[in-house]
Amino acid sequence: MATDVKVPQDLWQDDSMEAVITNWLASDGATVKKGALLAEIMVEKSQFEVAAPADGVLKITRQADAIVRKGDVIGQIT
Amino acid sequence: MSETAAPGPVREMPLAEALDWEAARLADIAEGRAAAAALLWSCEPALVAPKRLGGLPGFARAGAAAAEAGWPVHLRATGGDLVPQGPGVTNLTLLFRAPPGPAPGLDDAYRHLTAPIRAALADLGIDSCHGSVPGAFCDGRFNVTVAGRKFAGTAQRWRPVAAGHAVQSHAMMLMRGPDPDMIATLNRFYRDCGIDRRIEAAAHVGLHDLAGPGQADAMQGRFLAGLAERVLPRSRFRARRG
């Protein structure tokens, strides 16, 4: 079963605010551990770290520089 | 980590050491070894860029040119854009743990960072506010501005932990306004990176610009003492003053 890697819902308050994926720190197809740092997203000059929600193999679905919002799926772990 | 015996609350340290200190304290807070940390610091002339700029095709060339001009480039963990460092800049780093949930959020963390800065300015009779300043380096909504010019820039890094987030917030404050060499270096860096951005010296204001004749150093001392009283653990500040 796949687990979505999402932009967390609780990082900022304004639902309309857009962020950008500035960096993927794990590669597409990499084996990752739950809690490992996967990606960084930036909004309002603030860099947020996105951690792996599960153990498994990472599939990146939104590339670096993509514009995202709270709750968006940016990858999957299977 | 070395620590100078310079008087006053500001620790003078190599930039690389300051960035390492920030990373280590963020890890301490994320892993529960500390609840909070604060540092006022200053370093040698350099440019500091967020890591994302390091991936630009022109970054290596831009970095080499800046280093040749006396402004070596370092990468940092917080967001934002390119900023200059040097003796005319004093930095404030605050680190703390934020509880889970939407509050406190980004805006709250920025206000937590800028409130002591603005209060220390107010002690000197200087009104300030938040706002974007076109032409300023690393522009953002939570700049601290004086008379419409940028006095301080701010940025943050948030790391998820089991219960909430570990937060690193940073402000760079201009004790002196940027000099022409600094501005030229910033603009050349952007040009070499293929970024269409132009920094204007007049968009910034240093604390010394706000002082009366012969008062700049005294004003800077009072500002930094007032800021340190608000953000640094009292025992540490007293030790530094002594």
Explain briefly what this protein structure is:
Chain A is mainly beta and about 80 residues long. Chain A has strands at about 5, 20-25, 30, 35-45, 45-50, 55-60, 65-70, 75.
Care to describe what's here?
- The complex is a heterodimer of chains A (78) and B (242).
- Chain A is mostly beta strands and 78 residues long.
- Chain A has a single domain, classed as OB fold (Dihydrolipoamide Acetyltransferase, E2P), CATH 2.40.50.100.
- In chain A, a hairpin with a 2-residue loop joins β4 and β5.
- Chain A is globular and about 30 Å long.
- Chain B is an alpha+beta fold and 242 residues long.
- Helix content of chain B is 34%, strand content 25%.
- In chain B, the strands form two sheets. In chain B, strands 1-2-6-10-9-8-7 form a seven-stranded mixed beta sheet, with helices on both faces.
- In chain B, α2 runs antiparallel to α4.
- Chain B is globular and about 45 Å long.
- The two termini of chain B are 21 Å apart.
- At the A-B interface, β4 and β5 of A face α3 and β9 of B.
- β5 of chain A pairs parallel with β9 of chain B, so a sheet runs across the interface.
